[in-house]
Specification:
Length: 412
């Protein structure tokens, strides 16, 4: 396990980066389990390192058969922690999420209006205000619908909200919605759209779609686990007594005799993926995009040449109708196969022969390379500072190799 110590703080238009954050923690003093953080380092205004250490004090002596047991137990701990169950704190969290939603809708609405302005005909002066109000209302509805569409693509509710009804939300959030409508009035937005806001926020707040939150990566062994596993989840906050969280099933890793090694980057993994795959994710995407454009241009030139040559119209029409999806998909598959064979497999096979110290060195190096790339490019240096490294083995448990934290190891 390796993590940098950079922490980005945004206050209004000002962004500051501090290199003093701890992102790796042990969950138990007795058992081989650890936890890594990415994105936000607090939960509902409480620093997560405090909550993690509180969990370790209360539950660190309790073993579970599998790593999933620790994940479930930590989720239960967050849901039931008395200091997080305060009604005032939960309403404050809900209002902050509603404000994020409100700002996102307004940003989408502004873009929608900019696109539509050119199509608006000239109007008599007395009708301009009416037209403007109608356009704003239509734009806000379009913004709400756009976010709802993104939410629908996730196709799942946050686990603790699967049975949470719309009427329950309206009852719980009445005063919070009142506050939002006052905000609309203050900013001279339509005030007759309460139901649109209510439905949109309900769909968003209950879903697996989060704008901001914290990634928690659980790593280690359960009592019955012969090999280690990794389970990431994403948490956002609590309201109405329910925890907003979701799983990342595609990122789960279980080491076994069939899956002997894995490298799993989180958060800013672009540089690590470049090292592992031999091509940066952005360049890979651009190559795929250009391949599609090239195929389309080739087809267009071929059709133009056929028309000049007087080829039969039926033949030209048949070629015109021919799709290029199979060709571009085949291209992408071949590129992916080459990357997998020439880069990924070789790297993963090498790691299988590594000892613990070699793996720790590699994990640290991948973080350091990302730090170097951010330092020598125009990118914000959001990866940096000392790199913390820990290892977890079934027999020795959680062991720090490097930790910048000033406290003695027994307190970390």
């Amino acid at each position: 396990m390796a993590a940098d110590s950079a922490m980005t703080i945004i206050r209004g238009d000002n962004t500051r980066i501090y290199n003093n954050a701890t992102k790796i923690f042990k969950l138990s003093d007795r058992y081989p389990v650890g936890l890594m953080l990415f994105n936000n380092l607090d939960f509902m205004g409480v620093p997560l390192d405090i909550l993690i250490k509180l969990y370790r004090q209360q539950h660190g002596d309790k073993p579970f058969p599998t790593l999933q047991g620790y994940v479930d137990n930590f989720i239960d701990f967050l849901s039931k922690e008395p200091r997080l169950k305060e009604d005032k704190m939960q309403h404050r969290y809900l209002m902050s999420e509603m404000r994020i939603y409100y700002d996102k809708v307004n940003a989408l609405a502004s873009g929608w209006i900019d696109e539509k302005k050119a199509d608006v005909p000239a109007l008599p002066e007395k009708e301009i205000d009416i037209q403007a109000r109608n356009m704003v209302k239509e734009a806000l509805k379009a913004g709400i619908e756009a976010i709802t569409e993104q939410v629908t693509k996730q196709n799942a509710k946050s686990p603790e909200f699967e049975d949470y009804k719309y009427r329950d939300f309206l009852r719980y959030a009445k005063e919070d919605i009142d506050w939002l409508m006052e905000l609309c009035k203050k900013e001279e937005l339509p005030t007759d759209m309460r139901e649109d806001w209510e439905k949109g926020i309900y769909e968003y707040i209950c879903s697996n779609f989060f704008y901001y939150g914290t990634g928690l990566v659980f790593v280690g062994y359960g009592e019955k686990d012969l090999f280690p596993s990794l389970i990431p989840i994403y948490v956002s906050g609590i309201f109405g007594g329910n925890l907003r969280f979701c799983y990342f099933p595609d990122d789960n890793e279980q080491i076994s005799d069939e899956n002997e090694s894995a490298i799993v980057p989180f958060a800013q993994g672009d540089v690590m993926m470049t090292v592992m795959r031999g091509i940066s994710p952005a360049l890979h995407e651009k190559v795929s995009e250009l391949a599609k454009e090239t195929a389309t241009q080739t087809k267009d030139k071929l059709l133009a040449a056929m028309k000049e040559a007087g080829i039969d119209e039926a033949m030209i029409a048949k070629i015109q109708e021919t799709g290029l999806e199979d060709i571009t998909e085949k291209h992408d598959e071949q590129v992916e196969e080459f990357i997998q064979t020439e880069y990924v497999n070789g790297l993963v096979d090498t790691i299988e022969a590594f000892g613990v110290e070699d793996m720790a060195d590699m994990a640290e190096s991948l973080i350091s390379i990302t730090n170097l790339q951010r330092h020598f490019t125009a990118s914000e240096e959001s990866v940096g500072g000392p790199v913390d490294v820990a290892v977890i083995t079934r027999d020795e448990g959680f062991i720090w190799l490097k930790c910048h934290d000033w406290r003695p190891k027994e307190y970390k």
